[in-house]
Amino acid sequence: MELVQQVSKCSCRTAIWTRMVPIALLMIIVLSTPVLGEGERGFYVICGDPVDTVPVGTALHEMFFTIRSTSEIADSVDVIIEGLLPLGWSANYCQESTGICYSMDARLPLPAGSDEGFRVDFYPRLDFPGTGSIILEFRSVLEPQMRGYCTITCSTLPSLPDVGLTVDCPPEVQTVTGPFGLSEFYVPIQSTGNDPDNLVVKLDKSEIPADWFAKFCLVSSGECFLDEATLPFSPGTDDEIRVDIDTGNDPGWADVRIHFYSESVPAFSRRCFFRVYDRGPETAGVPNVFNKELPLRITPNPMQVHAELSFYLETSGLVRADIFTPDGRKIRSLGGNVEPTGWSHLNWDGCDHMGRRAPAGVYLIKLETPTAISSAKILMAR
Protein backbone atom coordinates (compact mmCIF):
# COMPACT_ATOMS: atom_id res chain seq x y z
CA MET A 1 0.00 0.00 0.00
CA GLU A 2 1.36 3.41 -0.89
CA LEU A 3 0.43 6.79 0.52
CA VAL A 4 1.59 9.85 -1.38
CA GLN A 5 1.19 13.21 0.32
CA GLN A 6 1.63 16.34 -1.77
CA VAL A 7 2.97 19.49 -0.15
CA SER A 8 3.81 22.75 -1.85
CA LYS A 9 4.15 26.45 -1.26
CA CYS A 10 0.71 27.13 -2.70
CA SER A 11 -1.75 24.39 -1.83
CA CYS A 12 -2.46 21.89 0.86
CA ARG A 13 -6.05 20.96 0.07
CA THR A 14 -6.76 17.64 1.71
CA ALA A 15 -4.96 14.84 3.41
CA ILE A 16 -5.84 11.38 4.61
CA TRP A 17 -4.37 10.12 7.85
CA THR A 18 -5.57 6.61 8.38
CA ARG A 19 -4.84 3.22 9.92
CA MET A 20 -2.11 1.47 7.90
CA VAL A 21 0.11 -0.99 9.80
CA PRO A 22 2.26 -2.21 8.18
CA ILE A 23 2.66 0.38 5.44
CA ALA A 24 4.98 -0.02 2.49
CA LEU A 25 5.96 3.50 1.53
CA LEU A 26 5.32 7.06 2.59
CA MET A 27 6.52 9.73 0.20
CA ILE A 28 6.24 13.43 0.97
CA ILE A 29 6.72 15.55 -2.14
CA VAL A 30 7.71 19.19 -2.12
CA LEU A 31 7.02 20.58 -5.58
CA SER A 32 9.76 22.39 -7.44
CA THR A 33 9.40 26.15 -7.74
CA PRO A 34 10.68 28.20 -10.67
CA VAL A 35 12.55 31.32 -9.64
CA LEU A 36 13.06 33.98 -12.29
CA GLY A 37 16.58 33.77 -13.72
CA GLU A 38 17.72 31.08 -11.30
CA GLY A 39 16.20 27.82 -12.53
CA GLU A 40 13.95 25.47 -10.65
CA ARG A 41 14.30 24.62 -6.98
CA GLY A 42 12.80 21.66 -5.26
CA PHE A 43 13.33 18.37 -3.45
CA TYR A 44 11.59 15.14 -2.53
CA VAL A 45 11.65 13.46 0.86
CA ILE A 46 11.18 9.70 0.55
CA CYS A 47 10.36 8.58 4.08
CA GLY A 48 10.28 4.80 3.68
CA ASP A 49 8.37 2.70 6.23
CA PRO A 50 6.97 5.07 8.88
CA VAL A 51 6.35 2.29 11.47
CA ASP A 52 8.56 -0.66 12.42
CA THR A 53 7.85 -3.17 15.20
CA VAL A 54 10.82 -4.95 16.79
CA PRO A 55 11.17 -7.32 19.77
CA VAL A 56 11.71 -6.08 23.31
CA GLY A 57 15.44 -6.19 24.04
CA THR A 58 16.49 -4.78 20.66
CA ALA A 59 19.44 -2.48 21.38
CA LEU A 60 19.51 -0.64 18.03
CA HIS A 61 17.03 -0.39 15.18
CA GLU A 62 17.76 1.46 11.93
CA MET A 63 15.24 3.11 9.60
CA PHE A 64 15.97 5.05 6.41
CA PHE A 65 14.86 8.02 4.33
CA THR A 66 16.20 9.93 1.31
CA ILE A 67 16.24 13.59 0.31
CA ARG A 68 16.26 13.87 -3.49
CA SER A 69 17.06 17.23 -5.06
CA THR A 70 15.21 18.20 -8.24
CA SER A 71 16.82 21.64 -8.22
CA GLU A 72 18.98 23.08 -10.98
CA ILE A 73 21.15 24.88 -8.43
CA ALA A 74 22.77 23.87 -5.16
CA ASP A 75 20.76 24.42 -1.99
CA SER A 76 20.92 23.53 1.69
CA VAL A 77 18.25 21.99 3.89
CA ASP A 78 17.53 22.87 7.50
CA VAL A 79 16.57 19.69 9.36
CA ILE A 80 14.46 20.27 12.48
CA ILE A 81 14.03 17.26 14.77
CA GLU A 82 11.42 16.66 17.46
CA GLY A 83 11.63 13.54 19.59
CA LEU A 84 8.59 11.77 21.06
CA LEU A 85 10.47 9.14 23.04
CA PRO A 86 9.64 7.14 26.19
CA LEU A 87 11.88 7.40 29.23
CA GLY A 88 15.09 5.49 28.59
CA TRP A 89 14.93 5.77 24.77
CA SER A 90 17.16 7.85 22.49
CA ALA A 91 17.40 8.46 18.75
CA ASN A 92 19.44 10.34 16.16
CA TYR A 93 19.71 10.68 12.39
CA CYS A 94 22.85 10.19 10.30
CA GLN A 95 23.90 11.38 6.84
CA GLU A 96 25.17 8.26 5.13
CA SER A 97 27.55 10.02 2.72
CA THR A 98 29.50 11.63 5.57
CA GLY A 99 28.77 9.24 8.43
CA ILE A 100 27.97 12.22 10.66
CA CYS A 101 25.07 11.76 13.09
CA TYR A 102 22.89 14.45 14.64
CA SER A 103 20.59 14.50 17.64
CA MET A 104 19.59 18.14 17.16
CA ASP A 105 18.71 20.56 14.37
CA ALA A 106 21.28 20.88 11.57
CA ARG A 107 21.84 22.62 8.22
CA LEU A 108 23.01 20.21 5.53
CA PRO A 109 24.20 20.95 1.97
CA LEU A 110 22.03 19.63 -0.86
CA PRO A 111 23.86 19.62 -4.22
CA ALA A 112 21.78 20.14 -7.35
CA GLY A 113 20.22 16.92 -8.61
CA SER A 114 21.63 14.84 -5.77
CA ASP A 115 20.29 12.00 -3.62
CA GLU A 116 21.20 12.18 0.06
CA GLY A 117 20.55 9.04 2.07
CA PHE A 118 19.84 9.23 5.80
CA ARG A 119 19.51 6.70 8.58
CA VAL A 120 17.49 7.04 11.79
CA ASP A 121 18.93 5.13 14.75
CA PHE A 122 16.54 4.18 17.55
CA TYR A 123 17.94 2.96 20.88
CA PRO A 124 14.93 1.43 22.70
CA ARG A 125 14.81 0.62 26.36
CA LEU A 126 15.87 -3.01 26.69
CA ASP A 127 13.69 -4.13 29.58
CA PHE A 128 10.30 -2.55 28.91
CA PRO A 129 8.09 -2.33 25.77
CA GLY A 130 7.18 1.05 24.32
CA THR A 131 6.80 3.20 21.21
CA GLY A 132 9.08 6.06 20.19
CA SER A 133 8.92 8.49 17.29
CA ILE A 134 10.89 11.33 15.81
CA ILE A 135 9.37 14.04 13.65
CA LEU A 136 11.68 15.53 11.01
CA GLU A 137 10.98 18.76 9.15
CA PHE A 138 13.03 19.80 6.12
CA ARG A 139 13.22 23.44 4.97
CA SER A 140 14.95 24.74 1.87
CA VAL A 141 17.38 27.52 2.78
CA LEU A 142 16.89 29.29 -0.56
CA GLU A 143 13.10 28.86 -0.52
CA PRO A 144 12.05 28.65 3.18
CA GLN A 145 8.40 28.07 2.24
CA MET A 146 9.41 24.81 0.54
CA ARG A 147 9.21 22.05 3.15
CA GLY A 148 8.82 18.34 3.70
CA TYR A 149 8.17 16.10 6.69
CA CYS A 150 8.77 12.57 7.92
CA THR A 151 7.42 11.03 11.10
CA ILE A 152 9.20 7.76 11.88
CA THR A 153 8.11 5.36 14.63
CA CYS A 154 9.76 2.33 16.23
CA SER A 155 7.72 0.12 18.58
CA THR A 156 8.63 -2.78 20.86
CA LEU A 157 4.99 -3.37 21.78
CA PRO A 158 3.51 -6.79 20.84
CA SER A 159 0.94 -5.00 18.67
CA LEU A 160 -0.04 -1.44 17.87
CA PRO A 161 -3.47 0.05 18.68
CA ASP A 162 -6.10 0.07 15.95
CA VAL A 163 -6.30 3.84 15.65
CA GLY A 164 -6.88 6.16 12.73
CA LEU A 165 -7.89 9.71 11.99
CA THR A 166 -8.79 11.62 8.86
CA VAL A 167 -7.66 15.25 8.85
CA ASP A 168 -8.94 17.44 6.00
CA CYS A 169 -6.79 20.55 5.58
CA PRO A 170 -8.62 23.55 4.08
CA PRO A 171 -7.23 25.94 1.45
CA GLU A 172 -4.27 27.70 3.00
CA VAL A 173 -4.31 31.30 1.70
CA GLN A 174 -6.61 33.96 3.11
CA THR A 175 -6.42 37.72 2.72
CA VAL A 176 -7.65 39.86 5.61
CA THR A 177 -8.73 43.40 4.87
CA GLY A 178 -10.92 45.55 7.09
CA PRO A 179 -11.15 47.12 10.52
CA PHE A 180 -10.71 43.99 12.64
CA GLY A 181 -8.05 41.81 10.99
CA LEU A 182 -9.45 38.42 12.02
CA SER A 183 -9.22 35.20 10.05
CA GLU A 184 -10.61 31.73 10.82
CA PHE A 185 -9.77 28.32 9.35
CA TYR A 186 -11.67 25.10 10.04
CA VAL A 187 -10.06 21.65 9.99
CA PRO A 188 -12.54 18.70 9.98
CA ILE A 189 -11.34 15.61 11.87
CA GLN A 190 -12.85 12.12 11.89
CA SER A 191 -11.83 9.13 14.03
CA THR A 192 -11.70 6.03 11.81
CA GLY A 193 -10.07 3.39 14.04
CA ASN A 194 -11.64 0.85 16.37
CA ASP A 195 -9.71 1.88 19.48
CA PRO A 196 -9.97 5.16 21.40
CA ASP A 197 -7.04 7.51 20.97
CA ASN A 198 -5.77 10.92 21.99
CA LEU A 199 -5.08 13.52 19.33
CA VAL A 200 -2.10 15.77 20.03
CA VAL A 201 -2.49 19.21 18.45
CA LYS A 202 0.40 21.69 18.26
CA LEU A 203 0.14 25.20 16.82
CA ASP A 204 3.39 26.51 15.32
CA LYS A 205 3.39 30.31 15.65
CA SER A 206 7.12 30.77 15.17
CA GLU A 207 6.70 32.62 11.88
CA ILE A 208 3.98 35.12 12.71
CA PRO A 209 4.78 38.78 13.49
CA ALA A 210 5.19 39.70 17.14
CA ASP A 211 1.99 41.80 17.18
CA TRP A 212 -0.18 39.05 15.67
CA PHE A 213 -2.10 36.51 17.77
CA ALA A 214 -3.14 32.92 17.01
CA LYS A 215 -4.92 30.12 18.86
CA PHE A 216 -6.97 27.01 18.08
CA CYS A 217 -10.30 25.77 19.47
CA LEU A 218 -12.18 22.47 19.57
CA VAL A 219 -15.50 23.42 17.99
CA SER A 220 -17.67 20.88 19.85
CA SER A 221 -16.63 22.04 23.32
CA GLY A 222 -15.60 25.63 22.63
CA GLU A 223 -12.31 25.07 24.46
CA CYS A 224 -9.45 27.17 23.10
CA PHE A 225 -5.71 26.66 23.39
CA LEU A 226 -2.74 28.89 22.70
CA ASP A 227 -0.03 26.38 21.80
CA GLU A 228 -0.69 22.68 22.43
CA ALA A 229 -3.44 20.33 23.61
CA THR A 230 -4.13 16.60 23.89
CA LEU A 231 -7.74 15.84 22.93
CA PRO A 232 -9.52 12.47 23.44
CA PHE A 233 -11.18 10.96 20.35
CA SER A 234 -13.53 7.97 20.54
CA PRO A 235 -14.09 5.66 17.54
CA GLY A 236 -16.48 7.24 15.05
CA THR A 237 -16.11 10.77 16.45
CA ASP A 238 -16.39 13.74 14.07
CA ASP A 239 -15.24 17.20 15.15
CA GLU A 240 -13.50 20.33 13.92
CA ILE A 241 -10.51 22.38 14.97
CA ARG A 242 -10.85 26.13 14.38
CA VAL A 243 -7.68 28.17 13.97
CA ASP A 244 -8.07 31.88 14.80
CA ILE A 245 -5.51 34.39 13.55
CA ASP A 246 -5.70 38.01 14.72
CA THR A 247 -3.44 40.35 12.76
CA GLY A 248 -4.23 43.45 14.81
CA ASN A 249 -4.47 45.27 11.48
CA ASP A 250 -0.69 45.23 11.19
CA PRO A 251 -0.05 44.86 7.44
CA GLY A 252 2.06 41.87 6.51
CA TRP A 253 1.82 38.14 6.01
CA ALA A 254 2.55 34.99 7.99
CA ASP A 255 2.64 31.22 7.70
CA VAL A 256 0.85 29.35 10.47
CA ARG A 257 1.15 25.57 10.80
CA ILE A 258 -0.86 23.20 12.94
CA HIS A 259 0.36 19.67 13.57
CA PHE A 260 -1.87 16.70 14.43
CA TYR A 261 -0.60 13.31 15.52
CA SER A 262 -1.85 10.20 17.30
CA GLU A 263 -0.63 9.86 20.87
CA SER A 264 -0.70 6.06 20.48
CA VAL A 265 1.13 5.93 17.13
CA PRO A 266 2.76 9.31 16.40
CA ALA A 267 3.70 8.18 12.88
CA PHE A 268 0.04 8.80 12.04
CA SER A 269 0.41 12.55 11.67
CA ARG A 270 -0.69 15.47 9.53
CA ARG A 271 0.25 19.13 9.19
CA CYS A 272 -1.98 21.87 7.82
CA PHE A 273 -0.56 25.13 6.48
CA PHE A 274 -2.25 28.53 6.49
CA ARG A 275 -0.88 31.69 4.91
CA VAL A 276 -2.54 34.95 5.92
CA TYR A 277 -2.11 38.34 4.28
CA ASP A 278 -3.28 41.57 5.93
CA ARG A 279 -3.33 44.65 3.73
CA GLY A 280 -4.24 46.89 6.66
CA PRO A 281 -7.57 48.60 7.33
CA GLU A 282 -9.45 49.97 4.35
CA THR A 283 -10.03 53.69 4.65
CA ALA A 284 -13.21 54.21 2.67
CA GLY A 285 -16.26 54.13 4.96
CA VAL A 286 -14.39 52.59 7.87
CA PRO A 287 -14.05 54.56 11.12
CA ASN A 288 -10.73 54.96 12.83
CA VAL A 289 -11.26 51.96 15.06
CA PHE A 290 -7.80 52.13 16.58
CA ASN A 291 -7.98 55.77 17.62
CA LYS A 292 -5.01 56.37 19.91
CA GLU A 293 -6.72 59.45 21.40
CA LEU A 294 -9.20 57.22 23.24
CA PRO A 295 -7.40 54.82 25.58
CA LEU A 296 -9.43 51.64 26.04
CA ARG A 297 -8.34 49.11 28.64
CA ILE A 298 -9.95 45.69 29.18
CA THR A 299 -9.32 43.73 32.37
CA PRO A 300 -8.96 40.84 32.65
CA ASN A 301 -8.08 39.80 29.11
CA PRO A 302 -8.42 36.85 28.55
CA MET A 303 -11.64 36.82 30.58
CA GLN A 304 -13.60 33.93 32.07
CA VAL A 305 -16.62 35.39 33.90
CA HIS A 306 -16.66 39.15 33.38
CA ALA A 307 -14.50 41.99 32.06
CA GLU A 308 -14.32 45.71 32.72
CA LEU A 309 -13.89 48.26 29.93
CA SER A 310 -12.12 51.40 31.12
CA PHE A 311 -11.76 54.55 28.99
CA TYR A 312 -11.15 58.28 29.40
CA LEU A 313 -13.63 60.87 28.09
CA GLU A 314 -12.43 64.37 27.29
CA THR A 315 -16.05 65.49 26.84
CA SER A 316 -19.15 64.18 28.58
CA GLY A 317 -21.76 62.54 26.37
CA LEU A 318 -23.50 59.37 25.24
CA VAL A 319 -21.34 56.22 25.37
CA ARG A 320 -22.13 52.81 23.91
CA ALA A 321 -20.09 49.62 23.45
CA ASP A 322 -21.14 46.91 20.98
CA ILE A 323 -19.73 43.38 21.14
CA PHE A 324 -19.34 41.38 17.92
CA THR A 325 -18.27 37.89 16.87
CA PRO A 326 -15.38 37.77 14.37
CA ASP A 327 -17.83 37.40 11.47
CA GLY A 328 -19.48 40.73 12.38
CA ARG A 329 -22.58 39.48 14.25
CA LYS A 330 -23.50 41.76 17.16
CA ILE A 331 -24.31 39.80 20.31
CA ARG A 332 -24.52 42.49 22.99
CA SER A 333 -24.68 46.26 23.58
CA LEU A 334 -23.47 47.95 26.74
CA GLY A 335 -23.98 51.46 28.06
CA GLY A 336 -26.24 53.82 26.15
CA ASN A 337 -26.01 56.42 28.93
CA VAL A 338 -24.47 59.86 29.23
CA GLU A 339 -21.12 59.61 31.01
CA PRO A 340 -19.20 62.52 32.61
CA THR A 341 -15.75 63.74 31.64
CA GLY A 342 -12.92 61.59 32.98
CA TRP A 343 -12.49 57.86 33.46
CA SER A 344 -15.59 55.72 32.91
CA HIS A 345 -16.24 52.00 33.09
CA LEU A 346 -18.55 49.45 31.44
CA ASN A 347 -18.86 45.82 32.53
CA TRP A 348 -19.55 42.76 30.38
CA ASP A 349 -20.77 39.61 32.13
CA GLY A 350 -19.81 37.33 29.23
CA CYS A 351 -23.43 36.88 28.07
CA ASP A 352 -25.23 37.78 24.86
CA HIS A 353 -28.38 39.92 24.64
CA MET A 354 -30.51 36.83 25.50
CA GLY A 355 -28.57 36.18 28.71
CA ARG A 356 -26.79 33.11 27.32
CA ARG A 357 -23.11 32.55 28.05
CA ALA A 358 -21.01 33.40 25.02
CA PRO A 359 -18.80 30.50 23.84
CA ALA A 360 -15.03 30.66 24.14
CA GLY A 361 -13.28 32.60 21.41
CA VAL A 362 -12.26 36.05 20.23
CA TYR A 363 -14.77 38.92 20.38
CA LEU A 364 -14.59 42.47 19.07
CA ILE A 365 -15.61 45.46 21.17
CA LYS A 366 -16.48 48.71 19.41
CA LEU A 367 -16.74 51.74 21.69
CA GLU A 368 -18.46 54.94 20.51
CA THR A 369 -18.16 58.25 22.39
CA PRO A 370 -19.01 61.84 21.41
CA THR A 371 -15.49 62.43 20.09
CA ALA A 372 -14.09 59.10 18.91
CA ILE A 373 -14.68 55.51 17.91
CA SER A 374 -12.30 52.87 19.19
CA SER A 375 -12.18 49.08 19.27
CA ALA A 376 -10.36 46.25 20.94
CA LYS A 377 -10.34 42.47 20.96
CA ILE A 378 -11.04 40.26 23.94
CA LEU A 379 -10.47 36.54 24.38
CA MET A 380 -13.15 34.56 26.19
CA ALA A 381 -11.51 31.58 27.90
CA ARG A 382 -13.37 28.76 29.59
UniProtKB/TrEMBL annotation:
Q: Which domain of life is it from?
A: Bacteria
Q: What is this protein called?
A: FlgD Ig-like domain-containing protein
